[in-house]
Amino acid sequence: MNQLSFPIESQSLAIAIGEIASLLFLSAILGWWLAKTIVKTRIRRMRILLEEKKYELTEFRTSMENNNHQPVATNASKTVYPVTSPDHAPDDLKRIDGIGPKIEELFNKEGIHTYEQLSETSVIRMVGILKKAGPRFQIQDPSSWPKQAELAKNQEWEELEQFIGKLASRKG
């Protein structure tokens, strides 16, 4: 087999290595300068944006101080829950398993006075009421309270006791 061999002169090898090294060096310097320029531009833009936001915040605070009597939200709506009708006395919510005097008081403050109102209240709202009241009330599980309230509303006391018994057997 014939092998091709190229005679390389030591002088041309040194020149080639020198050219490659100088190109690498120039590329590194160019990359450093380009990155530095880009970062400076970004920093300048961020400073300008920061100053704009500071100005907007100052304007907002000034307008709030001057217009303290005006509401922040003009189209806000509030969910209104029904209160006890005058012809119906409040029910004893403590008959529901898991509701004691304090929770009954919390629900009464939120406008829940009857079994009907409790049965129509979402579990999410009940959890919210308990959560707002503090950690000692958050251990309660209100998921069965609407069903229990429905049975109590219909005065199905035996079914209610059976349902509470089933709940107790699941827990134990």
From TrEMBL:
Spell out where the chain crosses the membrane. 12-35
Top-level taxonomic group: Bacteria
Q: Which UniProt keywords apply?
A: Membrane, Transmembrane, Transmembrane helix
Q: What is this protein called?
A: DUF4332 domain-containing protein
